[in-house]
Amino acid sequence: MKKLFNFTKRAAAIVLGLACFAQAAHADALADIKARKKVLIAIDLGAPPFGMTNAKLEPQGSDVETARLLAKDMGVELEIVQVTGPNRIPFLMTGKADMVISSFSITPERQKVVAFTQPYGASQFVVAAPKSENIKSLNDLVGKRVAVVRGNMQDSLLTPIAPKGTSIVRFDDDATVTAAIISGQVDALCTPNSLASAIAKQNPSKNLETKFAIKDIPYAIGLRKGEPALEKWLNDWITTNLKNGKLPGIYQQWVGSPMPDLAQFAAK
């Protein structure tokens, strides 16, 4: 009986393994997208100027325009899957989205889980605060409450280097970080410079300004691993639209400054 039980367990494991292998072997997200005639793209609409909504609650921003251009060139309908920073990967991995276009910074930790295309943009991460705050460097953060998105790039960048005595206050998304700095719940925030500029523009009475830069980080389109056809299509599409000026044009329109030289990230 014990031998039969062990044999049954081994057989079940083999069948499960073959099923998983078959599923992986036949996985073709690009074909699936074209068959359904719709691409599901995850975008954080609470992270201006990359993703946001206008007065009519219509999606807009650089990542939204990038997604629209991609869907048009792919010849399919676009469905925006609204996400926050922390749930971009879960939505991608559970099949709720085909890809992530959401200022999705490339990091070694994320590369263990998802695949990235070549960069199509870059963000300079900064510490910003009201003009009245005397902050010029990391050392000036001692005794300050600094807002970040929990588990997001700004958290990963600032937390290891913040001096002892800095209070890192974590929030679920960029929208709640913005609300915290505007309400005075925190003294400063760590965020992409473009987002800090957008918050300052939308709330002029707060006199928000960039205090100092931390690091330039490239961002790319995220997709599930094991999708070579989709990854190649996306990389070819990015190369084409960087060369023809469409992606730099979208960046300039929404971020308000020229796109950084992405060649600096080629070996990263």
The strand line-up of the biggest sheet is 4-1-5-10-6-9-7-8
* Low-confidence region ranges: 1-26
CATH architecture call of the largest domain: 3-Layer(aba) Sandwich
CATH topology of the largest domain: D-Maltodextrin-Binding Protein, domain 2
What class, by secondary structure content?
A: alpha/beta
Please, what is the average pLDDT? 89
Shape: globular
- Measured as a percent range, the helix fraction is 25-40%
Give the full name of the CATH homologous superfamily of the largest domain. Answer: Periplasmic binding protein-like II
Question: Count of helices?
Answer: 10
Largest sheet: 8 strands, mixed
The CATH first-level class of the largest domain comes to Alpha Beta
Plain-language structure description:
The chain is α/β, with parallel strands linked by helices and 268 residues long. It has 10 helices and 10 strands. The protein has helices at residues 2-25, 29-36, 62-74, 88-93, 108-111, 153-158, 174-183, 193-202, 228-243, 246-255, and strands at residues 38-43, 52-53, 59-60, 77-82, 99-105, 115-130, 145-149, 167-171, 188-192, 208-223. Strand 2 and strand 3 (59-60) form a beta hairpin. The strands form 2 sheets. An 8-stranded mixed β-sheet has the order 4-1-5-10-6-9-7-8, sandwiched between helices. Strands 2-3 form a two-stranded antiparallel ribbon.
Give a quick rundown of the structure:
This protein is of the alpha/beta class and 268 residues long. Helices cover 40% and strands 26% of the residues.
Topology, pairings included?
Blueprint: H1 2-25, H2 29-36, E1 38-43, E2 52-53, E3 59-60, H3 62-74, E4 77-82, H4 88-93, E5 99-105, H5 108-111, E6 115-130, E7 145-149, H6 153-158, E8 167-171, H7 174-183, E9 188-192, H8 193-202, E10 208-223, H9 228-243, H10 246-255
Parallel strand pairs: 1-4, 1-5, 7-8, 7-9
Antiparallel strand pairs: 2-3, 5-10, 6-9, 6-10
